[in-house]
Structure formats: C-alpha cells, structure tokens
Amino acid sequence: xxxxxxxxxxxxxxxxxxxxxxxxxxxxxxxxxxxxxxxxxxxxxxxxxxxxxxxxxxxxxxxxxxxxxxxxxxxxxxxxxxxxxxxxxxxxxxxxxxxxxxxxxxxxxxxxxxxxxxxxxxxxxxxxxxxxxxxxxxxxxxxxxxxxxxxxxxxxxxxxxxxxxxxxxxxxxxxxxxxxxxxxxxxxxxxxxxxxxxxxxxxxxxxxxxxxxxxxxxxxxxxxxxxxxxxxxxxxxxxxxxxxxxxxxxxxxxxxxxxxxxxxxxxxxxxxxxxxxxxxxxxxxxxxxxxxxxxxxxxxxxxxxxxxxxxxxxxxxxxxxxxxxxxxxxxxxxxxxxxxxxxxxxxxxxxxxxxxxxxxxxxxxxxxx
Length: 369
Hints:
It is a single chain. This protein is of the alpha/beta class. It is 40% helix and 11% strand. It has a seven-stranded parallel sheet with strand order 1-2-3-4-7-8-9. The longest helix has 19 residues, at 251-269. The chain is globular and about 60 Å long.
C-alpha cells in the first residue's frame, strides 16, 4: 500500500463510525504505515521521516519496515523505539515488486532461511526493551515450486514475533487470480502460540467474516479493499461485533470523503498542488460504480486545486445511492509472471558470497516509501 496508507488516509479511516453501533468505529482498528526502507530511515531521509509521522491521537502508532540486512533493520528498530516513534513494528516480507525481489528483498527473502531468521531476531531483540511488538507479513512463497510460508511462520514464532500475517498468494501471482485461503488455514495449524492473520481478497466485511470462519485465523489484514472506501474499517468493526450495519454512502457523502482526503493530504504535504496530484489516483476508486461521465472523470484526473475538486464534484448527480457494483475487487490485479531474482537465488536456501553482495545493495534503489 505504498503511497496510500500515509498519515492523511489513516486519519480519514479512523474517523468513520457506524451510527448507533457501540464499538464499531474505524478508530478501533490498527493502521500500519506504508512500507519504509530501513536504510532510508537510518539515514533519516526527509521522505522516510515524514512517513513515520503520526497524528497526536493516533494509537497505536504502527510502522512497517522493509529491510534485507539484519544490522540495518536492527538500527532502524532501535531508532524507532529509543526515540518513542512507534508502538508496533511490522516487517514486510511480502512485496512482489520486481525492483525489490530482483535483489533478494520482499517476498524473495524468506527463501533464504538464515537471513530471514536473522532479520526477525534482530528486530525483536531491539524492540523488546520497550515492549514494542514486532509482526511479520509474508506471502505463500516465490512461486508454486518455491513455497516458504510454513517455514517462515515457524521461524517468526520461534524468534519472538508477536503475530504473522499471510497474503495467500505467491510473488509470481502478484495480485492476480484468487487468494488461496486454505494456505492461511495451514499456517494457523503450523503456528500455534501466536496469532495468525489472513490477507487477500477482503473486499467487504462479509469477506472478512468468511475468511475467519473458513481458516480459523485470528484476524484479517486489509489492503486493496479499502481503496476509495475509508469506511470499510468501520464495517469490519461492526461485523466483528455482530452488527449487520454497513456503510452505503450516496455520491454526495462519497465526494465529501474525497474532498476531506484531499484536504488531509494538503496538511500532510504542506503543499496543495502536490496533494492534488496525489489524490488523482484515488478518484476512480472513490467513484467506482457511480454514473459519472467520461469527460468529468478526465477533468477530475487533472485537478490542480482543492477548489477545482469541489467545483467539479458539485456538477455530479450527488443523490445517486451506493451502487451494488461498487463492491468487489479494487486496485491492480494484472497477471502471473516470472519473479525477478538474483542470479542463482533458487539454487540453495543459504546465501553465497555473491548473493551477500547483492543483498547489501538491495535497499539502495528502494525509496523510503
């Protein structure tokens, strides 16, 4: 969720609640920051320092780290806890992006068992004095022939991780096809002393309830399902409390959320023009399923001010009810692909010297977000 779950969007999600339903506010959920590169954080790059900012009322403060070197990850975690910048740290071993996997990072890394263990151990060790829990997010494996999640889950449990989360796809699948929830059930059976969280194809509160019922997992992690739907988390809280209340905003309410999101992005960046460039990618997600003409959609995709956004949305038929086809898949899906990996990466589950050199450079081309 790089470029999505910044402080502005997290604030918006926390504000939603279900009218008349106790304990069904979006504020009851845990919101993890977008992925932050450990090296960039240790070097205190401006972008990484902005990405670890939290609102004063945001609790718990959760930071997701990407790293490939145990010493660098340890230094990043040490910084976060010693400077009281986080209440929870999530290690991302699920990223399938080629620029990450081709150097051995993200979803490629758990294939190297000792390296994976060393990173988790280092993070837990540095977080422990401050009682900050460390969790691990991962995928099923690199592809169908190179499965890693059961070994990774057991290792994370052994090394003191507070929970593990599984996106039930391989890196080769990226976001295509369907998540294999049966893998989550298998991980739950293999990991018995810490919570197992499920991820993949949670498009509605009903999907979350179904995943937990089918797999026995202890909770769910939501990614693409919240795109353009900051109220989804209030729906989840309602479903888990036994309420059937669901948010079904009309177009007026949706555009109000869109405008508020843009305002919060302006506050986050301190730059209205940049905020407007950022909000453009969210517009199609917010408007999914509503009758909005192609010309207006095109013009909305070019907005350069909050005023322009307000004027254009005011021209829509704002009394349109929530459309049924707004449910379902959101964001990218694509197709399966061959995973980019370092040379000879799959020959062994141990690192050789060439691969150690590749790993040392793996964070160089990955931005702080």
